[in-house]
Design brief:
By secondary structure, this protein is mainly alpha-helical. The chain is built from five helices and two strands; from the N terminus they run H-E-H-E-H-H-H. A two-stranded parallel sheet has the order 1-2.
Length: 102
């Protein structure tokens, strides 16, 4: 599913951050073909590790923590809303409330 999502987002990103599970030559070449920077650490099974921007990868945890907090909201975790616009409105509302209360 990842290559299809990357193709759908063509031109909308300059850098793609992902974890080791997405370390494949096909995904890396798809991202590079779009002219974006690949920030994916190599799996341990690679014979020669591929370098990546460690500082950018460390910033990825901010997004991971945000989604972890948003999943505390049942409506967001289970995706009750049928329309994407309504779902995103709920995500924004929960993010604002979570940010405001912390």
């Amino acid at each position: 599913m990842a290559p299809a999502l990357i193709e759908a987002a063509r031109g909308r990103f300059d850098r793609l951050l992902a974890d080791r599970g997405y370390d494949s030559n096909a995904i890396r070449s798809t991202i590079a073909a779009q002219g974006a920077e690949v920030v994916i650490p190599s799996t341990r099974s690679r014979k020669s590790p591929i370098s990546y921007d460690r500082d950018a990868y460390r910033a990825r945890n901010l997004v991971e923590r945000l989604w972890c907090r948003l999943k505390d909201w049942r409506r967001i975790a289970t995706r009750y809303d049928k329309l994407a616009a309504n779902y995103m409105a709920g995500v924004f509302l929960a993010a604002v409330i979570t940010f405001w209360c912390d």
